[in-house]
Amino acid sequence: MPLPSTSKYEYIACDPAECVGCQICEYVCSYNKTGEFNTFRSRIRTVREHKILMTAVACRTCEDAPCVIACPRDALTQDADTGVIRVDTGRCDGCAWCIEACDFGAISINPRTKLAEICDLCEDEEDGPQCVKWCPKDALELTSPDRRAQRTRRKRAVEEVIGR
After folding, report:
1. Residues 6+ apart with CB under 8 A from 34
2. Among 88, 112, 147, 152, which is most exposed with the fewest C-beta within 10 angstroms?
3. In Å, how far are 18, 54, 79, 131 from 15, measured between CA atoms?
4. What H or E segment, with its residue span, contains residue 85?
5. Which pLDDT band, with edges at 50, 70 and 90, does 1 fall under?
6. Nearest to 40 by CA among 99, 117, 133
7. Does residue 73 register a pLDDT over 70?
8. Interacting residues of 157 by C-beta distance below 8 A, sequence separation 6+
9. Per-residue buried b or exposed e for 84-100, using 16+ beta carbons within 10 Å of the residue's own CB
10. Strand partners for 97
11. How far apart are CA 160 and CA 164, in angstroms?
């Protein structure tokens, strides 16, 4: 079951029924952001929830983001229009308070720079998040709480009509 949203913004969601744990999302992300195929440098993570259930986790662009609030150096800011969390590399000292504050486990510390890294929805890419674009099972989508709620209402209406 998908995690509930804490956001009014768009975010990347994963359908665990479709995710096979191939990690292509991680490889594409790490290559896009760092130029290397290294899953440890990705800003999206595949995680095993149960023995056979896989999903992917990226920043949920929370409203009133706890990571931004927790940062003692004001190194994190949130774009008011998109919800994307940005890291000011001149202020971040790698203290990891943002990691502790994130309920989704969507922040990591770069082992080389010792700075926080967070998904930015590939805002510099014309065609959006590359993990969504390259997912071979279409398990990832760029969505919003409103779109997900609309899909759920539609699904329940269909189930009522056909009697499931």
Report:
1. 41
2. 112
3. 6, 9, 26, 13
4. strand 85-87
5. very low
6. 117
7. yes
8. none
9. bbebeeeebebbebbbe
10. none
11. 6
Q: Rounded distance, CA 92 to CA 11, Å?
A: 23
CA distance from start to end of the chain? 18
Placement of tokens 């590359």 in the chain: 130
Structure tokens at 151: 């899909």
Spatial distance between the Cα atoms of 134 and 24, rounded to a whole number of angstroms: 7
Q: CA 88 to CA 97: how far, in whole Å?
A: 15
Q: What angle do CA 75, 76, 81 make, to 5 degrees?
A: 145
Contacts of 82 (CB under 8 A, 6+ apart): 9, 10, 61, 121, 123
| Full set of structural domains in the chain with CATH | 11-162 (3.30.70.20)
Classify each residue of 121-154 as buried b or exposed e, where b means 16 or more C-beta atoms within 10 Å of its C-beta: bbeeeeeebbbbeebeeebbbbbbbeebeeeeee
pLDDT, one tens digit per residue, over 109-142 is 999 999 999 999 999 999 999 999 999 999 999 9
pLDDT score for 99: 97
